[in-house]
Amino acid sequence: MSRAPAPILSVRDLHVRLWTKFGVVRAVNGVSLDLAPGEVLGIVGESGSGKSIAMLAVMGLLDAALVDAVAGSVTVGDRSWNDLTEIEAWSSRSEDLAMIFQDAQTALNPVLTIEAQIVETLKARHGLGRKEARARAIKLLEAVRIPDPQRCLSSYPHQLSGGMCQRVMIAMAVGCEPKVLIADEPTTALDVTVQAQILNLISEIQRESGMSLVIISHDLGVIASIADRVHVMYAGRIVEKGTVQDVFAAPRHPYTQALLACTTRVDDEAAAPRAIPGALPDMREAISGCPFRDRCPIVLPICATEDPELDAVEGHAAACWRMPGADP
Amino acid sequence: MSIPASPSDFALPLLQLDDVCVDFQVPKAQGGKATLRAVRNVSLQVMPGESIALVGESGCGKSTLGRVMVGLIEPSRGSVLYRGRAMNALNRRDQQSARRMLQMVFQNPYGALDPRFRIHRSVREPLDIAGLGSRAERREKVARVLGLVGLGPRHAAAYPKQLSGGQLQRVGIARAIVTSPEVLVCDEVTSALDVSAKIQITELLVELGRELNVSYVFISHDLGIVRQVATRIAVMYLGRIVELMDAASFYRGALHPYSRALLNSVPIPDPQLQRDRLSKILVGEVPSPTDPPSGCAFRSRCPLAQNICREVDPALTPRKGSHLVACHFC
Ligand SMILES: Nc1ncnc2c1ncn2[C@@H]1O[C@H](COP(=O)(O)OP(=O)(O)OP(=O)(O)O)[C@@H](O)[C@H]1O
Ligand SMILES: Nc1ncnc2c1ncn2[C@@H]1O[C@H](COP(=O)(O)OP(=O)(O)O)[C@@H](O)[C@H]1O
Ligand SMILES: [Mg+2]
Ligand SMILES: [Mg+2]
């Protein structure tokens, strides 16, 4: 077997605990992942499974006031960070990582024109003068298919549609020439027609620039659109990983199977979707055993006491005691 | 009830909209006012027991039309008949009881509930306002309705903050059905929910529809979810209905290029098929409703557009069966 190229991004044993008004929530519980150069990784899971918090921790963008504890390590290229609570971590990782969010309209500053925001970013990042930065901004807006870049530059965010704002966010992120772009539900707030356009755009830019991409979504259809590999998250853990072909064609973890079974389809293969019974476990408790066991149709006695691990092996794997070779 | 439902009017539409238009006056960027035509010349009937879905991109007029149906907005033109009688011609009392028969549920259930009230009080409120039943009867009705939507006494005693999004949406539905309406307009009721909760809510609506004999107007931009609920589908574009057909044949048999484009845009969880679909997507965004294209409003994005589309707005005309399409070329 040929050796995989060295990963551009590695995350090891990431744990995040957050303060909430209901107590401390264990939002992320031991997430590890590797992203190859030029690879597109999808992260999918129900609301509250820890997708955003995990990636915000990787970026170093967690709100310090909310954090109870962060542990784990992040490696980008040849630089590593073992203390993820460091505030300065953000500025040093931001050279290589960029992130875009679901609500582009509110992520932009409402009282500044697009020009002020995009030109400032470019000046800060590349040390360009105003004129050069403006020329580059127009190039970037053209690259994200904004029909009239000049007019867009002089607009305020509220004068643009949600889709246009997301294009601007993508332009700003790509303008920083990151090694990895993390896109957290970038199309969730958009119409399906515009979602398809944005997914095409992100995928095209990713291929042309060769950057790596992490796309977070709760929609398996979005993941199927552009990801090479997928990680399925549940209760702050990765419970299944593999290529999109393997995972969608033959999901192994009962949670992945349940998630696929409740996804509606508009094409001819539509079967009646089935809801997943129950809800996410209380994330304030440390969970002993498998976190999915209360909703699992094929539970074993061991599931109540011991948490199955995701095999370290490359390729298709699921954290489930039912998997062959998963005996304790 | 002052408007009796007799067996003879069983086959009559509950709601009948004739040539309904809704215009809004909106400020222009350059100053002055512009007319925004949110709903244009919509004629539609809601029959007993059916579930009609309004679909289309945001801003195409679905919510506005839904609000017209429950009497929250007066149409600028055209008429709305409830059981054959013009809503605005009813006397005050009849209008109030008609309103009770036409209820609406919204996307954000949290916003519709008073955070200071326990759930049972919020659900009881419509009965209190309408002065329906004795105290004991109201309490009993609230418990029954909460049971119908799958909530128990524990939820009844809770405050909105203590419930999940899916549970809050159940409360929203309970509140809407507590006055035993005949038509329930559901506006994006699943949009804020998780995949699994979406399915649970559609299952609940289908079940309630059967049990309570309520008709639905199901507003959603999610064609996958619509498929679980709708018996008929109306596709809207810039305020007009461009295609209206029976839901069972819509997913294979929709003809309008906009309907086809919408269907093609919905991602499906199959990497191979989905990548192929993504290569054939609709370009552009919805034009401004204050300045729609001449002729057919869809022509600026339409792969079939010809010169005539610029000049003549195609009328909604019958195809096979009850299928209606507004297009010169399909
Ligand atoms: N600002 C916050 N304050 C307190 N707790 C939070 C905050 N944001 C997230 N959490 C908690 O952290 C856990 C993981 O949340 P996270 O936002 O990462 O989930 P997610 O998978 O991104 O979900 P979604 O699909 O809803 O975006 C949840 O239990 C959530 O309640
Ligand atoms: N109260 C209002 N005042 C002005 N414009 C409105 C108002 N309500 C809706 N609109 C406009 O009418 C059009 C249709 O809106 P809406 O019915 O909410 O669409 P949908 O529900 O399909 O997203 C949009 O262009 C919207 O901006
Ligand atoms: Mg999130
Ligand atoms: Mg709406």
Q: How would you describe what is shown here?
A:
The complex is a heterodimer of chains A (328) and B (330). Chain A is of the alpha/beta class. Chain A has two domains: 228 residues, 3-Layer(aba) Sandwich (Rossmann fold); 72 residues, no CATH class. Chain A is 31% helix and 22% strand. In chain A, the strands form two sheets. Chain A has a seven-stranded mixed sheet, sandwiched between helices. In chain A, strands 2-1-4-5 form a four-stranded antiparallel sheet. In chain A, β1 and β2 form a beta hairpin. The longest helix of chain A is centred in the middle third of the chain and has 18 residues. The radius of gyration of chain A is 20 Å and the shape is globular. The two termini of chain A are 28 Å apart. The model of chain A has no long low-confidence stretch (mean pLDDT 92). In chain B, α4 crosses α5 and α4 packs parallel to α7. Chain B has a single domain, classed as 3-Layer(aba) Sandwich (Rossmann fold). Chain B has 13 helices and twelve strands. The termini of chain B are far apart. The N terminus of chain B is likely disordered. In chain B, a hairpin with a 2-residue loop joins β9 and β10. In chain B, the strands form two sheets. In chain B, strands 6-7-8-3-9-10-12-11 form an eight-stranded mixed sheet, with helices on both faces. In chain B, strands 2-1-4-5 form a four-stranded antiparallel sheet. With 330 residues, chain B is of the alpha/beta class. Classes of the chains: A alpha/beta (328), B alpha/beta (330). At the A-B interface, α8, α9, α10 and α11 of A face α8, α9, α11 and α12 of B. Bound molecules: adenosine-5'-triphosphate (ATP), adenosine-5'-diphosphate (ADP) and magnesium ion (2 copies). One magnesium ion binds next to α1 of chain A.
